[in-house]
Design goal:
The protein is α/β, with parallel strands linked by helices. Helices cover 53% and strands 12% of the residues. The chain has 19 helices and 14 strands. The strands form four sheets. It has a five-stranded mixed beta sheet with strand order 2-1-3-13-6. The longest helix is centred in the middle third of the chain and has 25 residues. The protein binds beta-D-galactopyranose. Beta-D-galactopyranose binds next to loops.
Length: 416
């Protein structure tokens, strides 16, 4: 009897433990700035309300480079987390290696094909099957502006590259740092891609960075992109230490710099700092890109053999992410807009309203462009090659736009 009781006791304890871990999700992400943490908290709370415990696997570093390095080592050693923030072309690479759970059952139940804009569902699928769930739509081609500083310098709000340079010069003359820029390569590429979109327009941007058209990559137009990129450098603050994108956003809020080129996750930051986007900090389309839309879509993928083996929790998390209420709350905190177009935007600020309008118009005219800096445009190999050329150019004392365009074409050719 005693032996039986012990055995039963032990096995029910084991069952309890298994059930408990089954209701656990370990989630890897890189949302560690003030605004990002608030958004991540919305996800955590939504799951915890359903009895799913959240194990936070947050790796600092905007853009997610460090997070991806850690994820690779966990996955390769057979111990991946339940879910990971994975996006763009990376999804194809992870799915091809066989790591990701297929989400078709939950996608069918929740009608993802009908809910999601085709440009988004296509990113979430590998060989026609869903392998990730989208969280939001971020617009990357934004310029964030401290209006008081522009006023002080007598500068106009810029709407073209020419008026942008005129404003930057006035700010500089007035002793104000025109542009705050953090120290990561992806932040430099964020600046580069907005200038490229202004110079090239959506069609040529696509041919160059998505179709990788060799002629365009080495063309006079691309030389002009590098020329304009070069011209911005004197207006960027000189950094003496590593700086996150959120530190640069704080400089704009605190009046230490006038403008920042950054995706609208910066808006999540401004909101978390108690500022009203569109009022305290203005959102202008990056100069010369009015009406265009560079997209960055955050998404989560789920691992087949995650450390806790819990397919039910994975499905629940995927489902939760696409509910209207989660979409509303999360995107209000994150600075992005919902991926579902049936979520009312009444509570969203005017920057989000403008973003939604631009997204719709560009989707209709097939003019949406994927973000280069955010890994939405190409494979990680091509992306790395482009990053190298762009950041080398930005840091070189003798940067030559002509040579940079040739180098870009060569680097892309050898990486494809
Ligand atoms: C991006 C991500 C955004 C964001 C940003 C800065 O890669 O898609 O959600 O917050 O990094 O960390």
């Amino acid at each position: 009897m005693v032996v039986m009781a012990t055995v039963l006791g032990t096995s029910s304890m084991v069952i309890a433990a298994v059930t408990e871990t089954k209701r656990d999700v370990e989630v890897l992400h890189w949302w560690t700035s003030k605004g990002e943490m608030k958004a991540a908290r919305v996800l955590q709370d939504s799951l915890e309300q359903q009895g799913i415990a959240w194990r936070n696997f947050a790796i600092a570093g905007g853009g997610g480079e460090s997070a991806m390095t850690v994820l690779k080592s966990r996955a390769v050693s057979g111990n991946p987390p339940t879910a990971a923030q994975l996006k763009g072309e990376d999804l194809q690479e992870w799915a091809m290696l066989g790591f990701l759970t297929q989400l078709d059952p939950v996608a069918q139940k929740q009608h993802w094909d009908q809910l999601l804009p085709p440009v988004i569902s296509q990113i979430m699928k590998y060989q026609g099957h869903y392998v990730a769930v989208p969280v939001n739509i971020h617009r990357v081609n934004w310029l964030w502006v401290n209006p008081a500083l522009l006023k002080k310098a007598g500068a106009e709000l810029p709407d073209s590259l020419a008026s942008f340079f005129a404003a930057a010069e006035k700010l500089k003359q007035a002793g104000i740092v025109p542009i705050a820029l953090g120290s990561d390569p992806w932040q430099e590429v964020t600046l580069f891609e907005s200038i490229a979109l202004a110079v090239l327009g959506p069609e040529d941007y696509r041919s160059a960075f998505v179709d990788l058209d060799a002629d365009l990559l080495s063309s006079a137009k691309m030389v002009e992109v590098f020329r304009q990129f070069d011209a911005i450098r004197p207006y960027v603050d000189v950094k003496t230490k590593a700086m996150e994108w959120s530190d640069a956003s704080a400089m704009v809020v605190d009046g230490e710099a006038a403008m920042q080129f950054m995706g609208d996750w910066a808006k999540g930051e401004f909101t978390a700092m108690g500022k009203v986007p569109g009022v305290d900090v203005l959102c202008l389309p990056a100069p010369g890109t009015q009406g265009f839309f560079t997209y960055n879509i955050d998404s989560f993928a789920f691992f087949k053999h995650d450390a806790t083996m819990n397919p039910e929790s994975q499905a629940k998390m995927a489902h939760t992410i696409l509910t209207p209420e989660f979409q509303r709350q999360f995107n209000l905190a994150k600075g992005s807009i919902p991926v579902r177009n049936d979520v009312p935007l009444t509570e969203f600020d005017r920057c989000a309203q403008a973003s939604a309008q631009a997204f719709r118009a560009n989707a209709e005219h097939h003019q949406l462009v994927p973000s280069l800096s955010q890994g939405l445009a190409n494979s990680s190999y091509v992306q790395a090659a482009i990053f190298d050329v762009v950041t080398d150019f930005f840091h070189s004392k003798k940067a030559d736009p002509q040579q940079a365009a040739m180098r870009l074409e060569r680097a892309v050719r050898s990486a494809r």
